[in-house]
Recover the amino acids of this structure.
C-alpha cells in the first residue's frame, strides 16, 4: 500500500518513513492538466528542471530559470490534491552557497506551495542541504548523473562504474547524513544502486538505477511518448501519445482542406423566429 493510500497527502517525513516499504511512485509534471492525471497514482510529483527541454524546447536543463520553476510549480499545484509536490532548484540558484540556496528555496516554497525542493550534488552540497533542513526547507538529494553538471561530466554518461563507485557512495551518504529525506540515484549501475539503497537510511528514488531502489521516477513526457528528441535506455514508454497526436492532427488538417470540417453539427444556424 502506498504512502498516498495510507496517509493522504504525504509529507517529507512520511516519505522518509517509507524507507524499505512499498515502492514510492514518482513522476514529473509541468502543467495543471497533467498534474491532475498523475496525482491519483503518485506519491511524489516533481516539477523538474527538465521542463526546459520537454516544454520549452531548450537544449538542456541548464536553461531553466527560477521564473520558469515558479510558474510551472504554481500550475502543477493547481492540479494536485493527493501527491506531494517537489520543485527543482534550477542551475545557478543554489551553487554559490547556503544563503543563496535558502533564498531561492524559500521563494519556491512560498510562491508554489511546494512541500520540498530538490537539488543536485553530493559531498560538496552536504553543507547546503544541512543549512536548508535546519531552516525548515525539506530537501530531496540527487546524485549520480546530475544533468546540471553535464558539461563537466562530459555528457549524459553512466556514473559510478569501477573506481568511480566510491564517489557515488560518498555522495549519497553525505546528502542523506546532511538531512535529505530522499535521494535520487540517476544512471548508476544496478549493483551500486542496490548497495547504496541498503546502506543509507533514507529512501532512494531510481531513474536508470535499480528496481531495488525504494522508488522510481520518470519524466512523464518520456513515458507517455510525447518527448521524442531522444530516448534514454532507462525510459519505458507506456504509451505513444506523440504518434497518436500526429495522426489526429493530420486527420484534422485533411478534413479542413477537404471542407468536411466543420460539419453541420459543428456550426450554428439562425436564431428561431419569434412568434
Amino acid at each position: 500500500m502506498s504512502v498516498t493510500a495510507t496517509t493522504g497527502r504525504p509529507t517529507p517525513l512520511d516519505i522518509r518513513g517509507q524507507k524499505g516499504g512499498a515502492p514510492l511512485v514518482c513522476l514529473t509534471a509541468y502543467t495543471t492538466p497533467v498534474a491532475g492525471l498523475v496525482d491519483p497514482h503518485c506519491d511524489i510529483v516533481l516539477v523538474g528542471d527538465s521542463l526546459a527541454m520537454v516544454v520549452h524546447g531548450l537544449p538542456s536543463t541548464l536553461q531553466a530559470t527560477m521564473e520558469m520553476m515558479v510558474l510551472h510549480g504554481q500550475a502543477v499545484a493547481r492540479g494536485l490534491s493527493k501527491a506531494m509536490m517537489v520543485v527543482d532548484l534550477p542551475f545557478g540558484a543554489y551553487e554559490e552557497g547556503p544563503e543563496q540556496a535558502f533564498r531561492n528555496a524559500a521563494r519556491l516554497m512560498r510562491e508554489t506551495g511546494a512541500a520540498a525542493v530538490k537539488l543536485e550534488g553530493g559531498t560538496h552540497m552536504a553543507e547546503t542541504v544541512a543549512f536548508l533542513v535546519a531552516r525548515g526547507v525539506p530537501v530531496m538529494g540527487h546524485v549520480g548523473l546530475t544533468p546540471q553538471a553535464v558539461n563537466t561530466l562530459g555528457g549524459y554518461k553512466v556514473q559510478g562504474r569501477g573506481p568511480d563507485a566510491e564517489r557515488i557512495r560518498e555522495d549519497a551518504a553525505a546528502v542523506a547524513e546532511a538531512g535529505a529525506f530522499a535521494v535520487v540515484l540517476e544512471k548508476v549501475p544496478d549493483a551500486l544502486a542496490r548497495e547504496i539503497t541498503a546502506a543509507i537510511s533514507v529512501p532512494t528514488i531510481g531513474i536508470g538505477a535499480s528496481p531495488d531502489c525504494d522508488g522510481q521516477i520518470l519524466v512523464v513526457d518520456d513515458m507517455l511518448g510525447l518527448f521524442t528528441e531522444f530516448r534514454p535506455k532507462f525510459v519505458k514508454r507506456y504509451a505513444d501519445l506523440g504518434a497518436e497526436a500526429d495522426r489526429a492532427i493530420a486527420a484534422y488538417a485533411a478534413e479542413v482542406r477537404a471542407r468536411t470540417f466543420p460539419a453541420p453539427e459543428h456550426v450554428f444556424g439562425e436564431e428561431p423566429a419569434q412568434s
